[in-house]
Amino acid sequence: MSEEGEKLGLIDAIVPSQELLKVSRQWALDIAERRKPWLRSLHRTDKIGSLSEAREVLKAARQQAKKIAPNMPQHHACLDVIEEGIVHGGYNGVLKEAKVFKELVLTETAKGLVHVFFAQRMTSKIPNVTDVGLKPRHIKKVAVIGGGLMGSGIATALIVGNIYVVLKEINSEYLQKGTKMIQANVRSLVTRGNLTQDEADKALSMLKGALDYSDFKDVDMVIEAVIESVPLKQKIFSEIENVCPPDCILATNTSTIDLNLVGEKTSSQDRIIGAHFFSPAHIMPLLEIVRTEKTSAQAILDLMTVGKIIKKVPVVVGNCTGFAVNRAFFPYTQSAQLLVHLGVDLFRIDRLISSFGLPMGPFQLQDLSGYGVALAVGKEFADAFPDRTFRSPLVDLLIKSGRNGKNNGKGYYIYEKGSKPRPDPSVLPIIEESRRLANIMPNGKPINVTDKEIVEMVLFPVVNEACRVLDEGIVVRASDLDIASVLGMSFPNYR
Questions:
Q1: Alpha carbon 114 to chain centroid distance?
Q2: Which SUPFAM superfamilies match (predicted)?
């Protein structure tokens, strides 16, 4: 028996029943703290005066577990263990935990989580980069070009990681907006308890704004985070090549554009690399490091090191349209659009994908990212993979009707401050018009599909594309793509 179990056994033997309930509550809280943060809702147990009240608290926690992760039985098993400890004492709780563990460790869920655990640790091993004796250089100062949503998030992650940042914008108005977004990001980290106020103040002191390249003369790295425009990116890279130190890493945050195009007009292809963050960049844990055939091992190693310093998980991938994650998942949106135009209810698709374990369905995700992004990215993929692209008229129709998703509060869903997104019935005529234009329903009638078939029709094409990504050598190993999908697309790790 463990030391914890022995202590709880002694407590059962000598502590009066009221004291036993008190000690068992604390034991339950300790278990909850070790398991999952959402179980901390059990802090209400300090107000419990009876076992019936304890059961009410546990009932509420079970409802929350079902809502957050309906497909994860171990969450409910944890609550079974906690209930046993509260009702019958900590020693019985320990015995219950041992029994439940033996059952859960053999499940597919456990196998998936173990795989993810080891796979994440493998991402730091890159042949001909981490095994050739190179040492990472110390990156002290980074310039970020563009203070929009992505640029401000990247800058936030860097200053919180104690790296000095020069944020460059094209005018003082945009620079002020970018600075305010960074300040808001840092404040939100304080509110969440991720930073103390002193740490926040120190982080903000490491940020400097700029309207020209005069502060770029001593930077160790530049991360360009402007709009997805090839001519604009080429112009920026030509300029920074001339003003930055000769060993400065030249990185782009592009999510789809070929890096060879970005650096086409420079003579520094060995320093050009992709630093693809996922939005919001200061929160999402994945950093997709994109290399070309000419990118040096030193640049890759240095960016991997920066990623770890700012608490990201760097995954090194090859250069192609969409790179690894977006490339593998572009059929995800395509399949969902295809199903809608075959007559399947759009909101049903979102509900089923959420029930499968993703945080939201493909259409709510499109609302969140904005339709401008959907059109730009969709064009890149349509040009690169025309043989497996479905050209949906739906997004164009949404924009013409004055919708832009969460950005203006109107999309497939209605967005109101203080309320959860809810399906918008007024979008249904737009969907019907899009179906009429696409005209792919067999005999003009909606298809009949089961819930299981819908999930498979949305996700199986992702598996197929992932196989293509592997076949083309875009990732070092299959498990790297697993981790990138979990951390970048929030694919459920227990799956």
A1: 20
A2: 6-phosphogluconate dehydrogenase C-terminal domain-like, ClpP/crotonase, NAD(P)-binding Rossmann-fold domains
Express each pLDDT in 69-126 by its tens digit.
Answer: 666 666 677 778 777 877 777 777 778 878 888 888 888 888 898 999 999 999 999 9
CB atoms within 10 A of CB 3: 7
CB atoms within 10 A of CB 174: 17
Complete domains list, the chain, with CATH: 3-106 (no CATH), 141-317 (3.40.50.720), 325-473 (1.10.1040.50)
Owner of token pair 């497909």: 71
Tokens 């005999």, residue located:
443
Q: How far is the C-alpha of 167 from the C-alpha of 212, rounded, in Å?
A: 10
Instruction: Determine contact, residues 141/216, Cβ cutoff 8 Å.
Output: no
